[in-house]
Amino acid sequence: MSDLYARHKAVLPDWLALYYADPLEITHGEGRHVWDAAGKKYLDFFGGILTTMTAHALPEVTKAVSEQAGRIIHTSTLYLNRPMVELAERVAQLSGIPDARVFFTTSGTEANDTALLLATAYRQSNQILAMRNSYHGRSFSAVGITGNKGWSPTSLSPLQTLYVHGGVRTRGPYADLDDAGFIAACVADLEDLLGHVRAPAALIAEPIQGVGGFTAPPDGLYAAFREVLQERGILWIADEVQTGWGRTGDHFWGWQAHGASGPPDMLTFAKGIGNGMSIGGVVARADVMNCLDSNSISTFGGSPVTMAAGNANLTYLLEHDLQGNARRVGGMLIERLRAIAAQHPGVREIRGRGLMIGVELVKPGTDEADPDAAAAVLEAAREQGLLIGKGGGHNTSVLRIAPPLSLTVAEAEEGAAILERALRSAP
Question: For the chain, how long is the longest CA-to-CA vector?
Fold first, then answer.
């Protein structure tokens, strides 16, 4: 055990998870690579849980942060804040939500917490619809709507949560249906559920479930849900903490794969926009955002330094068409991984979009999750210089791949080759 690991265990919670049997201390990074305290170099295919969206140590972002910190670091939302207004204008325009208002927070958890506050206040209801296998953060209210028991340590909640089918396409009671049949069955389930309850405030859903193992419904499911919800005045919250900013390649926001019935009433974002700085937020229709009848501020949300980082990072993302790069390089990487999976009996499925890719592992010859294999592949990949993540619901075991969106074709090929060796070497 390293000295730092021993110190970590002595003062931090036992439930604060660390990857690897010998936990890794990352000291610095550049581009798509990071280095540990021993000087070993790694290709980063997880980006600080999808947070380092453009690149490590991106000069445009570090320069913007340094220059703003040299002027003033903090003022709070009680004062006018030019970088915050500038970023809010851009996010509102990009969101696709008409007459949008933006509220900045410090994390995705806090963003989802705010969306739940707005929805319950607007609708005067504490009932929330959420998806099975979902994850929305670690605050008391966010845990209460998380449909993944591995990340929900208590059943106590200020909300009454009702869970809907549809977030997982290839498992569950509707897995054997075709896409149209799957959507129809999920809509029928939603309509039946709504016939048994009063008036829910909102449905909150990740277009692609992140912690749940990068699972997703067929395109159009949430558009079909939207029609049912609109008839009853129920709001739709798109949790874009992991899917936003072009990561899926095909769309700038994950909800756009389900946009036939219009945009969501609210979307939440975080992670990638700050490229490592603590930014989260909510975009909502003005009537929803403005429904609160008491004071509300954010001491640290929208700080001048984080807003400077967000503006610089968003500019880089758009000017370098990283959404297009995610589509091109991610598509190539998915096909490469599918070719590898065809030769490995322990891989059940390669799924995902753009640079948001899941590799689901099972015990060979069965459909049973294999968490031990996932842990072993994670370790083997690290030994060979590749960092990846893992996740999944109660009966799945998934390797999660989500590198910075500036990933090159050569780096994608290198990462796929390492992962192929790791899959072969793992017991």
Answer: 62
